[in-house]
TrEMBL record:
<feature type="domain" description="DnaB/C C-terminal">
    <location>
        <begin position="125"/>
        <end position="195"/>
    </location>
</feature>
<dbReference type="InterPro" id="IPR053843">
    <property type="entry name" value="DnaD_N"/>
</dbReference>
<protein>
    <submittedName>
        <fullName>DnaD domain protein</fullName>
    </submittedName>
</protein>
<comment type="similarity">
    <text>Belongs to the DnaB/DnaD family.</text>
</comment>
<dbReference type="InterPro" id="IPR036388">
    <property type="entry name" value="WH-like_DNA-bd_sf"/>
</dbReference>
<dbReference type="InterPro" id="IPR034829">
    <property type="entry name" value="DnaD-like_sf"/>
</dbReference>
<dbReference type="InterPro" id="IPR053162">
    <property type="entry name" value="DnaD"/>
</dbReference>
<feature type="region of interest" description="Disordered">
    <location>
        <begin position="193"/>
        <end position="238"/>
    </location>
</feature>
<dbReference type="Pfam" id="PF07261">
    <property type="entry name" value="DnaB_2"/>
</dbReference>
<feature type="domain" description="DnaD N-terminal">
    <location>
        <begin position="18"/>
        <end position="102"/>
    </location>
</feature>
<feature type="compositionally biased region" description="Polar residues">
    <location>
        <begin position="204"/>
        <end position="222"/>
    </location>
</feature>
<dbReference type="InterPro" id="IPR006343">
    <property type="entry name" value="DnaB/C_C"/>
</dbReference>
<dbReference type="Pfam" id="PF21984">
    <property type="entry name" value="DnaD_N"/>
</dbReference>
Length: 238
């Protein structure tokens, strides 16, 4: 047995009830929430404190994004936070298991449109409101293709429309490009998009700081210029 296999075994494993994996969306959780739930259980089963900083480090996202999601779980009544010492907290998921056993699903947030023909009409209505005009037959055909051929989620369509409007790009081609990119990156919920944006902003902020520091150092070196030479005088010259 090589060292890597030993390390894998010694790291242990985290057990998750299959009913949680099957019904987590019925409880109002998305894929990212599920990973946070698993990370919390992993850390606490090891005897560690499941701090947002540790979870964020494991998931490669910002600490703020993790804290926001945990707060949302608390608002949905899925987790209790108990203080177990100075600056130490324990996440108790007993409420989640109780809802699971009783079959009481939580209300899913951000449901902006329904399914079926109603969602199709709603998306077109939102587009017409943002464009300030009626859609052309070709534009309506494009929206129908989003539903029938691309199978984009109506909620993601609405979010993409909002993103395009925020960027002052009111065109179906721009909106479709956003949807294609999200699908490629496996961003399947508004929450996932939010976490990806926060992660991107964090990377951009760090990169910007690094570039600023390098530029500042370069300017300091240029402003300093070459050191002046001090002439050596001999007293017998005067």
């Amino acid at each position: 047995m090589n060292d890597q296999v030993k390390e894998l075994i010694m790291a242990g494993q985290t057990t998750v009830y299959n009913q949680v994996l099957i019904h987590y969306q019925d409880l109002g959780l998305d894929n990212d929430d599920l990973v946070i739930f698993i990370q919390i259980n992993r850390l606490q089963s090891q005897g560690d404190m499941a701090s947002p900083a540790l979870i964020a480090s494991a998931m490669k996202v910002t600490e703020k994004a993790i804290s926001t999601r945990i707060q949302n779980m608390m608002k949905k009544g899925l987790v209790n936070v108990q203080s177990i010492g100075a600056r130490q907290e324990f996440f108790d998921f007993a409420p989640l298991y109780e809802k699971l056993i009783e079959g009481k699903g939580a209300q899913v947030d951000n449901r902006v449109v329904s399914t079926g023909q109603q969602s199709r009409r709603e998306v077109m209505k939102i587009l017409q409101g943002e464009f300030g005009r009626a859609l052309s037959p070709m534009e309506m055909q494009t929206v129908n293709q989003w539903f029938d051929q691309d199978h984009f989620d109506p909620n993601m369509m609405t979010l993409a429309i909002q993103e395009a409007v925020a960027n002052n790009a009111r065109s179906l081609r721009y909106i479709e490009a956003i949807l294609v990119n999200w699908k490629r990156d496996n961003l399947t919920s508004p929450q996932a998009v939010q976490m990806a944006n926060e992660k991107r902003r964090a990377v951009s902020y760090q990169t910007g700081n690094s570039r600023y520091q390098k530029r500042t150092q370069g300017q300091d070196q240029k402003s300093a210029g070459p050191k002046p030479k001090v002439p050596n005088f001999k007293f017998d010259q005067f």
